[in-house]
Amino acid sequence: MARTGRRLNRDELQARRAAGERAAEEGHSLRALVDAHLAVARAAWATADSALAALAQAVDALAGGYERAQHLAVRQEEAARREFIDDLLYGGSDLGRLAERAERFGLRLSHAHAVAVAEGSVACAEADPVARRVQQALVGRFGDRQLLLTTKEGRLICIAPGDPAEVPACFAREAHTATGGGRVAVGRTHGGAGGIVQSYEEALNALEPAERMGLGDAVLYAADLLVYPVLTRDRQAMADLVLSTLGPLREARGGAGPLLETLAVHFDAGCIAAEAARRLSLSVRALTYRLARLHQLTGADPVHRYTLHTAVIGARLLDWPAREL
């Protein structure tokens, strides 16, 4: 081509584009890629070596400046995005200014939104394959529908319009799979910037008691779990109820733990002795003995069933007796 002046044809250009894409996927910089191609050209065109050497210097300087500016722009964009997300989720900014910044990241705060939070066994960052996989699945299905995917404190977070509801639901399914079976909580739909904060807190509050309560659902909806924040809103009152109702169980052989588990499983089984015994791997007779012992220690009878059940839920939420109240 140096002798004939012929330019690259379509197939040759496509081959170079493919090579460039592969280099980017393998993590090579633009600067290194250009240097490698110029080195090949200099070896092939020995007569033009001095001119190519000067060209290589110029291209190297140009690429270096370009990459520095690009890296700086990326860091600035990441910092601005992180600051916006912190302000959005914690409500720590002027609402008018927050709305302006939200437009830049594809959100319209005048609309109602729901926030879904996914938590896996391993902390997640925005550059991780897990986040990218979920992002690709959402964009592939819904396109750019004013949703924002981010991470916070190792959790994967999706802020999406509350209508249609299938966006948070799709995120929940994809995040559950991508995190290897992690748990996902979806807050209720609320309007405005304050509504995003409220939905986010609802999702977090749904995740917190899930393990203690033994909730097996992969996807938790805050609307279905409102009773738990209500019960723990006055923690001191709940602690008093737990200790006054279940405190005597500490006198049992082996401590309060085994009998408390028996009560919890008994209530979860709808107070059906045969089902509770099966879940506890006990005979019905052994379960009946434990229930009699519980009655002996607590003095509770069927009239006090609601009080006893509430105390059991409170004990699980407050992690008693493992944690002193």
Chart the SSEs and their pairings.
Blueprint: H1 10-25, H2 30-44, H3 49-90, H4 95-104, E1 112-119, H5 129-142, E2 148-152, E3 155-161, H6 166-178, E4 183-186, E5 190-191, H7 192-210, E6 219-221, H8 227-232, H9 235-246, H10 256-268, H11 273-280, H12 284-298, H13 305-317
Parallel strand pairs: 4-6
Antiparallel strand pairs: 1-3, 1-4, 1-5, 2-3
Would you write up a description of this structure?
By secondary structure, the protein is an alpha+beta fold. The chain is 60% helix and 9% strand. It has 13 helices and 6 strands. It has helices spanning 10-25, 30-44, 49-90, 95-104, 129-142, 166-178, 192-210, 227-232, 235-246, 256-268, 273-280, 284-298, 305-317, and strands at 112-119, 148-152, 155-161, 183-186, 190-191, 219-221. Strands 1, 2, 3, 4, 5 and 6 form a 6-stranded mixed beta sheet that branches. A hairpin with a 2-residue loop joins strand 2 and strand 3 (155-161). Helix 5 (129-142) runs antiparallel to helix 6, helix 10 (256-268) packs across helix 11 and helix 11 crosses helix 12. The longest helix is centred in the N-terminal third of the chain and has 42 residues, at 49-90. The radius of gyration is 30 Å and the shape is elongated. The termini are far apart. The relative contact order is 0.07.
